[in-house]
Amino acid sequence: MDEYFFNSIKCLIFLTYWLLIANITFRVLIKKRRSIASSTLWLLTVYIIPFIGISVWFFFGELYLGKRQKKIANRIWSMSNNWLNELKSCTNIFQMKNSEVANSLFQLCKHRQGTYGIKSNKLKLLSNTNQTIQILIRDISLAKKNIEMVFYIWKPGGIADDVAIALIKSAKRGIHCRLMLDSAGSIAFFRSPWAKIMRKSGIQIVEALKVSLLRVFLRRLDVRQHRKMILIDNYIVYSGSMNLVDPSLFKQSSGIGQWIDLMTRIEGPVAATMGIIYSCDWEIETGLKILPPLPNKQHLRNEYTRNSSIQVIASGPGFPENMIHQALLTAIYSARKELIMTTPYLVPSEDLLYAICTAAQRGVKVSIIIPLYHDSILVKWASRVFFAELLEAGVKIYQFKKGLLHSKSILVDKQLSLIGTVNLDMRSLWLNFEITLVIDDSNFGKDLFYIQKQYISDSLLLDKRMWSTRAYWTIILEKIFYFLSPLL
Fold this sequence. Notes:
One of its GO terms (cellular component) is plasma membrane. The chain crosses the membrane at residues 12-29, 41-60. The structure is a single chain. This protein is an alpha/beta fold. The protein has 3 domains: 2-60; 67-101 and 115-309, Endonuclease Chain A (Endonuclease, Chain A), CATH 3.30.870; 323-487, Endonuclease, Chain A (2-Layer Sandwich), CATH 3.30.870. The chain is 44% helix and 18% strand. The strands form 4 sheets. An 8-stranded mixed sheet has the order 11-18-17-16-12-13-14-19, with helices on both faces. It has a 7-stranded mixed sheet with strand order 3-10-8-7-4-5-6, sandwiched between helices. Strands 1-2 form a two-stranded antiparallel ribbon. Strand 12 (338-342), helix 13 and strand 13 (365-371) form a beta-alpha-beta unit. Helix 1 runs antiparallel to helix 2, helix 7 (129-142) packs parallel to helix 8 (159-172) and helix 14 crosses helix 19. The longest helix has 29 residues, at 2-30.
């Protein structure tokens, strides 16, 4: 009897094991976006070290939310959405023509997202975090209707507390305030007294993609709310790389210096498209719909630039798939004279790497600015794998030495700008909730060019000859870390 029982258990374990292997194999093969290299690595991992491979797949192999969140995400962002159809009827806000360098990208956005670029916006590029916070506090204090924010990281202390105090004051005078923060990135905020104090003042606070032991078994935990976005009175918006932290305090124990960020402040009708993205994120987390109002005549002031055009691209579960990846490729292939890119994390897809190298080889002056000092050991070493190929193609790689360069920007021919939260790595391209502003404006491009040139002047140029003579053990270490990147 005992022998029969144990044999039955063995058979059950054996059957379960092969069912899991077959299930994972099926899911890897039908996943339409996964590259051959990534699929092969997953299958080899599961077959060669099955128990570890199955465990890793369970936590990181599938891109999914909780069941309720996934159900909401699958239905809210659609080209047939009634709100979007109403927005399309506001024909006076759309720019039908774009510059030559931006035309392809804006056509892509029109096809994938359903609308032309939006005109009549007032743009300002902000490269100093302290200055950005002061301007933000002023806008919060002057708000008349509503304030909505989403951040990956809110770390209490210093000037971050000044923003919290300004929000509390606005809430107490009747301004409708909503705050959405990523559970993992803002763990210090949720453990501080600020969450309770702000809720008590009337601010609605949502802990996005909440992390807990129970949820480990319900959804993938490394899908994060990585957007940084502020909306005030459905008219003023901020977006870029800045988290709500005091740079003089944030991660100073790591010895990498202050984080250097870039934000864009915009007044105008583009706030409506930013608002619908926030509405979608809010609905995914709460189930409540908070659609923004459509643009009105106030959004079309004559003194605002009408020659420029803006598209807003959002990514994440429920949003147009692969859109940001397509946008980056289109922008790079549109370059004719000069391409400048800044990113703190450089682990591009094969397609992006090929596009960047091809741009340099066809005569485009290509520069990539990355941090010399890094907060991620894995990404630091994995990114080094790409240096030799980029340098060989003629790409100039600059390593910023005055802190951690956290800005995410692309400038094409001083005309087409991409500013947002997207890093050039797999996590930003495939997993997280991200946002990118696509701006067709020569004046804005000149401002971005000036800032990027300042970054370059504070950087070290990587020497191709010196890089080729680096120690052999470092090459092996780079390959080991790079080997892990397709698992994302």
